[in-house]
Amino acid sequence: MSYLVQMWGLTVHNFVSAATGIALAVALVRGFARRSAKSIGNFWVDLTRCTLYVLLPISIVVCLFFIWQGMPQNLLPYTAASTLEGAKQIIAQGPVASQEVIKMMGTNGGGFFNANSAHPFENPSAVTNLVQIILIFSLGAALTNLFGRMVGDQRQGWAIFAVMGVLFLAGATTAYWAEAAGNPAIAALHVDQSHSALQAGGNMEGKEVRFGIANSALFATVTTDASCGAVNSMHDSFMPLGGMIPIINIQLGEIIFGGVGSGLYGMLLFVIVGMFVAGLMVGRTPEYLGKKLEAKEVKMAMLAILILPLSILGFTAVASVVPAGLAALNNSGPHGFSEMLYAYTSATGNNGSAFAGISANTLFYNTTLAAAMFIGRFLMIVPMLAVAGSLAAKRIVPTSAGTFPTHGGLFVGLIVGVILILGGLTFFPALALGPIVEHLSMHAGSLY
Questions:
Q1: How does pLDDT run across 222-253, given as a tens digit for each residue?
Q2: CB under 8 Å to 314, separation ≥6 — which residues?
Q3: I need a surface site. Which of 48, 157, 191, 267 has the fewest CB within 10 A?
Q4: pLDDT tens digits along 364-423
């Protein structure tokens, strides 16, 4: 794309999509915070505030930092260079730094270069790699604090932050463990994969040597916890269980800090379901932050949550049986299925990362992946806003001795359990056909 299209077209969407997510999250929070209200705010006002007071100032400061670290920020034509072997090489340039900061902070993903954040112009050093990781999580994490402040009890925000933190640590630990253990198929060839002063060790396939296994596994976990999709390594080259973590992160709805705004409102939908389950266990009408959670709120929350698996599993099921879907696979067996499952998982979650072994640039995949993006982005919003409007109209019920405390360890454990159980029941069969059976067959020494 031309520099003008990227600066004028894509940049606008990068800012507006992030501001839209924050505005939607704030609308749902107002549903809990307001009492007997007839509205949940003005969308245009929220959109403008988010863009002018949050996104633009941070983007300007971090853009200057990226330029200092070595990212290009110019309008120069591409540079033709001669290599040491005498070959000609075209080196792309352009307004990289300004695009990079909003793509990360707004969890928009993609990359100025095809190699994405593995490219030295897009991610020059370990410092920029760390800053990019922080940018991806920054606003999603900060919104939990906003939630606590708006409802008048910052402990509620810390509880939501704790739920996200537990799930994030579990995913990052598993991904690193799977990659650091190395590939048993290579070990069977008596190839040394141990860590030493001369080599990183473990599974380094598809990873940038500058970042190694730890930073690659961490980046992959963070970018799929959020709806970012920027990558500094190739997820398709991860070990089966290491690659399963990014899939699970997206399938849960990217609620682990998540996209800007979408992570918080997705998590709050799970909280509504979790409090409904708690109410069933103790025989009380469920409530959260003084608002009674009745049939309408629970039905709308479940509808919003079920839209994602409907798209992910539905499209994957169709693609796995029609010739147009199977023809695009470059790998057979469980890994090929994992590539297909990842494609629709990433599209529905508006993530953008991929298992690159699938040739998705076909009429069938372009059409179905576009439909998955639309479903995952927009259809979830409608029932979520219905929940917000319904809650805003309700009165706040005073706390009593039977009120379930929602700021302690019991609440955190309940919500983590509900998320994992719902995710496990929904997606485990598909994961069993892909990364899990690939892991078992790899360690068994045979493919089937």
A1: 999 998 989 999 999 999 999 999 999 999 98
A2: none
A3: 191
A4: 999 999 999 999 989 989 999 999 999 999 988 888 777 888 999 999 999 999 999 988
